[in-house]
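re: ur msg from earlier - yeah i can do the iron/sulfur cluster complex, just paste it... oh wait u already did. ok heres what im feeding in:
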Amino acid sequence: MTEKRETSKGFTKTESGKRLTRMLTDDYMNLHRGAGEGAFVVWVAIIVPVEIFRGFDNVVFAVPESHAALSAAKGVGMLQCEKAESSGYSMDICSYARIDIGTAMSGGKDSPTFGLPRPHLLVSNNNNCSLLVKWFDVYHREWSVPHFIIDVPFCYERQKDRDRAYIVAQYRDLIRTIEAMTGQKWDAGRTREAVHNSSEAARQYKRFIDCAVSRPSGITAFDSFVQMAPLLTSRGSPELASHFRMLADETEVRMKSGLFPVPGERYRLFWDNIAPWHQLRKMSTRLADLDANIIAASYTSCVGSVEGSYEFLQDYDDGDPLEALARMQNFSVCPYGMELRFEAMSWAARHYGIDGFVFASNRSCKVYSIMQMDLQKRVAGTLGIPSVMIDVDHADVRKYSEENAFVRMEALLESIDAVRSRKGA
Ligand code: SF4
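and the outut:
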């Protein structure tokens, strides 16, 4: 393998990273091209199963949250937020929503993807947060675009059969709605094929994020955050599975060659919340200088995982594709009760050998953050693992202080040392 690497400590630009850039460029170009040639355009929330749309001849989808994350990572998050704020939207609203509204209201100006083509249908769900429904309602009002809302029951335990049936009934409603709006006929076989592709992609993505099990870890969570983008834009396609297969293969080869992002790794950390998109390189590099690595995160399992765990749906057996998709509606963070979140975190602590937790209290995503104080107490009391709470905003850099965050993260590393010396390790 003749892989060319561009490396700075803690952050690696690999062949997979370059392939990822090409894939995302293609996804957004195909979206714009399809819309320009008359395809039916749907805007979706991240958990809406886009495999359903792949069952139609000429339906394309856009994911505003993913576009907002990309905008923040490319450094234009604040600019787009300010546009929304100048139109009267409060700074307290989720920064994804502000970036998206700022982008849409300025006709895609300053967007890394020239914005998103205007939708014919909006599809959201209430299992992330109610803000998301209100955010999509802005376009429903401003542009008179129909808004289909999937109602997903909150999950305190394993998903119940009756809840799954309730979700599937809404999927059928969504299919009928698109058939009526487009005149196209849904093909269940094509959606089944897309679910197979997603299931295989999940299996390969899991291989990749499990490179964190090794000591030192073969990846940083920042690598896996970056690789989440096509989980949203290419979901259900065969290209996604093959990209993740090559990604996992390349990562394993690097590890066998002794190449690790933090070779002197002394602290293995776990991140709880959405990625700090505006800080990926800065935070990973500065942590690496402290021989610390955030190796895994709850966020990387938020798309495609099944209820009750950070595990993905990797075992699709050719059954009813809508049933399989409904299992993934209750993913492992926001729409989850305390017990399941703690259970999933305890599993991660054992599986990855975590020394400390970083709870990122997110000014934008209150639903993700609200249980963190209780989780922090349980992580300390039950697992005996030190943790720290830092203030972030996933996409609005104005609500993040690097120095404040690092003062606390350095204190966490000292706590880990103290635990080790108590144990005589
Ligand atoms: S508040 Fe959280 S769950 Fe809701 S849209 Fe923003 S990031 Fe997503």
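cool cool. Confidence is low (pLDDT under 50) at residues 1-8. ping me if u need the other ligands too
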